[in-house]
Design brief:
By secondary structure, this protein is mainly α. 43% of the residues lie in helices and 0% in strands. The longest helix is centred in the middle third of the chain and has 24 residues. The termini are far apart.
Length: 198
Amino acid sequence: MKPQLVRHSNQALKRYMADMSLSADDLTRLTKIAESKIHKALNGENVLRLSQLEKIAKVLFVPTVYLTTDHFIFQRDSPQVIEHRNQEDISENEYRYRALIEEFSQVRQSYISVKEAMDEELEKFDLKLSGDINNAESDAKTIIDYFGFHSFQKKIKIMMTIIILGGNWLRIKRYWLLIKGQKNLALMVCACTMKPYQ
């Protein structure tokens, strides 16, 4: 039986790839779709199955429907990121950096939706960290105290997304390793505001 192919917009595909700083080779690697098929899709040929289009949409952080037309543009709800380091060149990890911001945006939007559904006010998020890699243990303790993880009475798994804006991957990993060791606590890579680098 011949696979059912779906129509897509090559202009939309190019636009969202540019948004996420992805090349055709990168998209091939992340989606495990043949490179020749990606190139054909970029040239406007209908060569993708629905499951493949969904994989691409997931990597590009857009709803699948926006890849089928270029009449509507998906407006990303991404926060403005202020880079406090004196390093402008993040091209080596630019996709990972943008993907992390998009994941945070999705988690934030889900949290806001839940709060609105429960008719609860959003509280001000005022957690401050030092941002000093040599002081990571103290920052990890600050996170634990801020969220009250020691006060839980029963075993509980906590999942949260904390992006350390202005941080780097090494620092995020270090916080993860330090916090993961706390009793009855499971944290995933995560967002807290950090003081700018001095």
